[in-house]
Amino acid sequence: MFMKIKVYYRLAVISFQSFISFKFNIFLNIFVSMAMVFIQILIWKALYSQEDATNATEAITLETMLQYVVISSLLNIIITSQPLQYIANQIRTGNIALDLMRPFNFNLYIFSMEIGKKIGRVFIQIPILLIFYFSILSNLPGNEINILFTLIVIMNAIIIQYLINYIIGLLAFWWIEVWPMDMLMNSLIKLLSGSWIPLWFFPEQLSKVAEILPFKLIYFDPIRVILGQIHPSELQVIVLQQIIWVMIFISLAIFLWKYGTKKIVVQGG
């Protein structure tokens, strides 16, 4: 058992080392994140300066909105997972057959590699971005937050996003090319999760749709927790909803993996 854990630990370390070796990509991603936040801040400041501001805009202060933008950007770096690309490529090329014969679990292998990348983002990208964001924010979130629940909510958000991406990757067993579905799902997540626009400003019908789907549990609800915008009783509901969706996605992933590996189609190679 210990030897197996050591193998996956080593895989995570290799992934981390590989991540930090591409220094240009790291700093390019940091620059893009800074630029996107700066642009969003300019847009929100312009919207709040309009005399005909809506009631929703008036209810949420500009200061809170800017904090929301910054936190969303930081969460995006932590939450983002991309197991889909590797899974789809292995299935498309037929190399998945070789992966299944290796002396370790294919799914834990992918998960370990993602963990290594996330550690790289947390310890390299996040500190630089924090310095930049603190320099442009006049105030930081001042509400007291429950650290334990906040960490649980963020961890669940990471797992949900990972499972969604993983499930789309498994669809390659049937569709071979899954990038159109990936683009569609990423757009839906960005829109309905509150990553781009908080659900506070959604029209009523779209807000109802967003409340039903799990996407808001990835960004909107975790950001509200960090900002102290929710009641303690609601926090427990959010965690429960996240756990339910995690169990649903895990069940779906197991189902797709079980039946997908039975019909591996080798496409060249």
Q: Per the principal axes of the C-alpha atoms, what is the gross shape?
A: globular
Helical residue percent band: over 70%
Poorly predicted sequence stretches spanning 5 or more consecutive residues = 265-269
What is the residue-averaged pLDDT?
85
- Spatial separation of the terminal alpha carbons: 34 Å
Number of helices: 13
Class computed from helices, strands and strand pairing: mainly alpha
Number of domains: 1
| Number of strand segments | 0
Order of helices and strands: HHHHHHHHHHHHH
Q: β content, as a range?
A: under 5%
| Gyration radius, rounded | 20 Å
Q: Characterize the main sheet.
A: none
What does it look like?
This protein has 269 residues and is an all-alpha fold. It has one domain (2-263). It contains 13 helices and no strands. The chain has helices at residues 2-21, 23-48, 55-59, 62-79, 83-93, 96-101, 106-136, 147-170, 172-175, 179-192, 204-212, 220-227, 232-260. The two termini are 34 Å apart. 27% of the residues are buried. It comes from Paenibacillus barcinonensis.
